[in-house]
Write a structure and sequence with these properties.
Layout (H helix, E strand, L loop, with lengths): L2 H9 L9 E5 L1 H7 L1 H9 L1 H4 L21 E3 L5 E3 L8 E4 L28 H13 L5 E3 L6 H8 L1 H10 L2 H23 L4 E5 L12 H21 L3 E6 L7 H7 L3 E4 L1 H4 L1 H8 L4 E5 L10 H15 L6 E7 L5 H15 L4
Parallel strand pairs: 1-10, 5-6, 6-7, 7-8, 8-9, 9-10
Antiparallel strand pairs: 2-3, 3-4
Helix pairs in contact: 6-7, 8-9, 9-10, 13-14
């Protein structure tokens, strides 16, 4: 069975042969560990695939990930970075004052990417075709922070929270503008017959839904319904990543049409995620990256095994992912890879 078929079986609860799992390595992590990390990757081809030695530039960071850099994105939001190899944050907001909305122009999503580089749709189309030819899933995606986060990138977080309470007409205008921008991009991916579209919007803090469930349902959920509904109508899977505590709105997200939900284990808790998600939607469980710098190898193995035993089932519906920042010791990255190999490739 190839990776594509196994992945789809996990999503659809059709008895996959193994639990899909992956380890994410940030640019800052590559920069810190360099050749040692590359040797680790080469030792674990079942996790990282056919990696070629020398293919990673250890010192390269994408726009917005470079220490000391100010970056103005295509929306006019100014980002600043204080740590090389990790993403910065927005420090200047073009719509902090509603007066600016009168003359504000959104970028064209079919021409300009969020970070300003040109979209080469011909090359993207070829990439999707090559994925299909290799037996891989042809995937597209919207930029991380496509809806809720984009609203506070534009307005500033405190302003947006006040807007949600005061409900000014300009807020509804802005939401519709951002939504229509996203739908144009989604329609392009659907035109190219993407089999799955990635969406990422961080909706939670460490302890709660950032805007409160009632405001999510009023302002954000209707947008998700339209976007995810268009995907599902076309037969395209919806992958949603969301950092933070989102337990109170997981039912809403599933109702919106999410096929694969990527929640954080640490902010939501395993037992609660079992209650909310098991058997209802496929979960790509984001393991507790806050624990990785401090855990023993034994604890990592125990935690991954517990997640598999409680949230997984022979029918499927579970994937696992681990993002490793530069504060994670190299031996713990190795322990994650070994635990994945032990727990995910021999099914329950």
């Amino acid at each position: 069975m190839d990776n594509r078929e196994n992945y789809l079986r996990a999503v659809e609860f059709r008895y996959p042969e193994w639990i899909p799992c992956r380890v994410g390595l940030m640019p800052a992590t590559w920069k810190k560990y360099r050749e040692e990390l590359e040797e680790l990757v080469l030792r674990h081809p079942r996790i990282f695939g056919s990696y070629e030695k020398g293919s990673t530039n250890f010192d390269s960071s994408p726009p917005g990930y470079r220490q000391g850099e100010y970056l103005t994105d295509s929306w006019g939001c100014v980002w600043y970075n204080t740590f090389d190899g990790l993403e910065g944050q927005v420090v200047k907001h073009p719509l902090e004052n509603w007066e600016a909305l009168k003359t504000y122009q959104l970028p064209d999503p079919l021409v300009t990417a969020d970070r300003g580089s040109q979209q080469d749709w011909e090359m993207i189309c070829k990439r999707l075709q090559q994925a299909r030819q290799k037996g891989e899933l042809a995937t597209g995606g919207l930029p991380h922070g496509f809806m809720f986060m984009r609203l506070y990138y534009l307005r500033a977080f405190e302003n947006l929270m006040i807007d949600f309470v005061e409900d000014p007409p300009d807020l509804h205008t802005l939401i519709e503008m951002v939504l229509n921008h996203n739908i144009r991009l989604i329609n392009k991916w659907l035109e190219l017959e993407a089999e799955m579209i990635y969406f990422g919007d961080d909706l939670g803090s460490q302890r709660q839904v950032l805007m409160g469930p009632e405001y999510f349902r009023k302002y954000i959920k209707p947008c998700y319904v339209r976007m995810f509904g268009a995907c599902r109508k076309a037969g395209t899977y919806v992958y949603l990543h969301s950092d933070g505590h989102i337990l109170e709105i997981i039912d809403d997200l599933i109702e919106c049409g999410v096929s694969i939900l990527n929640p954080q284990l640490g902010a939501n808790g395993l037992e609660e995620l079992v209650k909310k998600c098991k058997g209802k939607a496929c979960v790509d469980l984001d393991l507790s990256r806050q624990d990785f710098p401090f855990c023993s190898s034994e604890k990592i193995r125990e935690d991954i095994g517990e997640a598999v035993s409680k949230l997984g089932s022979r029918e499927g519906g579970l994937m696992l992912c681990a993002e490793c920042e530069p504060d994670v010791p190299l031996e713990n990255i190795e322990a994650i890879c070994r635990a994945f190999e032990e727990c995910c490739f021999d099914l329950l």
